[in-house]
Amino acid sequence: MSETGAAQTTPLEERLIDLIKLKGPITIADYMSDALGHPHEGYYMRQNPIGEKGDFTTAPEISQIFGELIGLWLVEAWQAMGAPESFNLIELGPGRGVLMEDILRAARSRPGFGKAAQVWLLETSGRLRLEQQKRLKATEAKPLWADEYADISPGPSLIVANEFFDCLPIRQFERIKSGWRERLIGLNEAETGLAFTLASTPPPPEFQLPEITQSDVGDIFEISHPIQTFASEICDTLNEHGGHALIIDYGHMERGFGDTLQAVRDHEYWAPLASPGRADLTAHVDFESLAKIAIESGVNAHGPVTQGRFLDRLGLPLRVETLCKGKDEATAQEVRAGAARIAAPQAMGEIFKVLCLSSSGLPTPAGFES
Ligand code: SAH
User: Fold this and answer.
1) Which pTM value belongs to this model?
2) Which residues, in sequence order, are CB contacts of 187 under 8 Å at separation 6+?
3) CA atoms within 13 A on the CB side of 231
4) Segments making up each domain of the chain, as ranges
5) pLDDT band at residue 6, thresholds of 50, 70 and 90?
6) Closest C-alpha residue for ligand 1 atom 6
7) Using an 8 Å Cβ cutoff, are 349 and 306 in contact?
8) Helices and strands (DSSP H and E) totals, the chain
9) Ligand 1: centre distance to CA 123 (Å)
10) pLDDT digit string (tens) for 150-176?
């Protein structure tokens, strides 16, 4: 993808310029929260961003096989938990509801699963909630929606999050000669637009940034407090009530340096500060830190493994052949092309990782065997 497109000044940008003039530069996290989640002007609130017709597409939107394999994985995980008669099937950031629809269809192979599952959808966008409601109407699930994780009633849980953690706000720190400085968003010289700047004082020690000796001038280090909070909340659920959380996202296996903040609009890269509210903003997920939070809280962390490897282990090739059987050549080609996009290394197979957090005492879930 190339970075293209003419930026327009958006109402949100004007609001942010006024705010910065008044109070000074804001954090990247504040910018992301507003650009994505502002109740009127936020990206997820204003339009339907997902799918071929939206700005970006996701694995469940590309191939039904993605959700079907995850559905069968969930059934197996539920059985390994002793098939509890009631449990929470939670999806974080369900988009248009396609993944949950595919999960529920595949899981019909074990009728007890659907009966036992209380589907919970954590979603902030009213527009996307409506889409989810429409799509899931035909299923036997009677979903409940939550604005915040704490609204979900406690219980044994199977949690799925696909491309959810990457849209949670991050903060960035840049290494200068004397130490770390937070990268903030201020104004350009003419005060007509947004521009990156650096804080004038060092961040507080509780940010636990890497040692100066282990970094070079110009390095960027990212931290996401909302990811840390979600991870802790999920681990509390798993520790208290048992279950698994399957987290699938763009990201890196190991903590490192780099600026991963990126914007996408109409399937093209976009400058992150251009037209806030009109482009999707994401950052790569730091899977090492996520796994560390889990392990420190007593939860087991399996993986991360690459998405391609995970799907292959769950039987992607066989599922492709089953779906192609008896189909005309064009349909079969489409099924194969979709499967290749979600699993091939040069497409989504390598850059996307899968991490499973599991309460202690449960067997290693499928796809994570060493
Ligand atoms: N999982 C979907 C969509 C990913 S897009 C798919 O794979 O197609 C991110 C989703 O997370 C959207 O539904 C968005 O509205 C939702 N979202 C973003 N930030 C959120 C937050 N803080 N709380 C709840 N939902 C959020």
Assistant:
1) 0.95
2) 17, 20, 21, 193, 194, 195
3) 28
4) 12-40+170-221, 45-167+223-254+280-358
5) low
6) 95
7) yes
8) 13, 16
9) 6
10) 999 999 999 999 999 999 999 999 999
Residue 28 and residue 183: Cα distance in Å, rounded?
Answer: 7
Which ligand 1 atom is nearest residue 61's CA? 8
Distance from C-alpha of 262 to C-alpha of 20, rounded to nearest angstrom = 22
CA of 324 to the centre of ligand 1 (A): 31
On the question of pLDDT at 125 being above 50, the answer is: yes
The binding-site residues of ligand 1, defined as CB within 6 angstroms of any ligand atom, are 44, 50, 58, 60-61, 93-95, 99, 122-125, 128, 162-164, 167
Three-state secondary-structure class, residue 85 = coil
| Percent of the chain predicted with pLDDT > 70 | 98
Nearest-angstrom CA–CA distance, 193 and 276: 11
Burial 231-252 (b: 16+ CB within 10 A, else e): beebbebbeeebbbbbbbbbbb
Concatenated DSSP letters for 312-334? HHTTHHHHHHHHHTT--HHHHHH
Residue 40 in 3-state DSSP?
coil
| Both structure tokens of 8 | 């327009």
Task: Specify the residue with its C-alpha closest to ligand 1, atom 17.
Answer: 93
CA of 122 to the centre of ligand 1 (A): 8
- The residue whose C-alpha atom lies closest to atom 21 belonging to ligand 1 is 124
Alpha-carbon span 250 to 211, nearest angstrom: 26
CA 331 to ligand 1 center in whole angstroms: 30
How many Cβ atoms from other residues are within 10 Å of residue 353's Cβ?
23
Ligand 1 centroid to residue 129 C-alpha, Å: 10
Class of domain 45-167+223-254+280-358 (CATH, top level): alpha beta
What digits encode the pLDDT tens for the residues 208-255?
899 999 999 999 999 999 999 999 999 999 999 999 999 999 998 888
